[in-house]
Model the fold of this input.
Amino acid sequence: MDLVKEIERLKKEKNAIILAHFYQEKEIQEIADYLGDSLKLAQIAMNTDADIIVFCGVHFMAETAKILNPEKKVLLPVLKAGCLMADMISSDELRNYKLQHPDTKIITYINSTASVKALSDCICTSTNALKIIHHYLNEGNQILYCPDQNLGNYAMKIGNTSFEVWNGCCPIHHYLDKQKVISEKQKHPHAQILAHPECQMEILELADYVGSTKQMLDYSIQSEADEFIICTEKGVLYAMEKANPDKKFYLASPTLSCAHMKFTTLKDVYECLSQEKNEIFVEEVVAFHAKKALDKMMELSK
Ligand code: 13P
Ligand code: SF4
Done:
């Protein structure tokens, strides 16, 4: 069976769209109606007229789509595709923190469960985190940023400020070996280093540009440079090479691969869409509170 053709046929028949994150395998990126970072995909999910959203990404992304557009059927091709960072804070832990710090505003990275989002004042992504964090600080608030310590530390450094950060991280970015980045730079001395803010400060300090996956892609298109060392998950290289056929991209380390993002195959997408299986549901009260925090992000990131 030609899976790509069948998926295309089912998409039309069922008025479905496929959203894919940049970390997905290239064959999944190719069948996507929209390819993007966490913010862009959430915005598309919120505004789509499609009846079915097939989310090729990880669980929190599909959950976010369901919260933002509850009338739609949201399907996740592989249910076990999760996010290691999202699992580093539980709603019980955050509830306990809030009891001890009742006046602190909670700013939560979108890489989190719906129940953690529901306990938050505002959500952010790597695209808008600096803007949102500094908005709350400028209002004179005490804040906790969770769960990513690295993006939190980066926001503190950029804003020359300080606030509380949770000690979670994305292990794929956090354990990127600085020596690997340095040796890639020695091999390609004219290459610019682009890094995701989930990397540790010692990596960000080496970078010519720090941004979300989409911001890195845009930077690679606009930059005069024609070689880049990429410090984020390897999937994004496919989109970068496609957008810049004359430029060269080097992955900083072969360890930059998120197994959960790589679970999804064309067969999974086909089966999920044909059987309308792996539907994502979010408990009503959780969805109500999580949506308030997501709406606040959308308002502040305009
Ligand atoms: P972006 O928001 O930059 O797409 O990042 C999502 C993610 O999971 C990074 O590890
Ligand atoms: Fe989560 Fe890291 Fe995978 Fe992104 S790369 S989905 S933060 S585990």
Observations:
- The first strand starts at residue 16 and ends at 21.
- The longest helix spans residues 284-300.
